[in-house]
Design goal:
There is one protein chain. By secondary structure, the chain is an all-alpha fold. It has helices at residues 2-29, 33-36.
Amino acid sequence: MFHILVDCACVCVWWFNHLSSISSEAINKQPHASING
């Protein structure tokens, strides 16, 4: 049972890193003014 939780945690961490890297790339492509509103 425990290894299932570990696998889920690893997947969540991988997805979080993946999405954050994508969003950071998208933000870098856009002017910084778009972040504020």
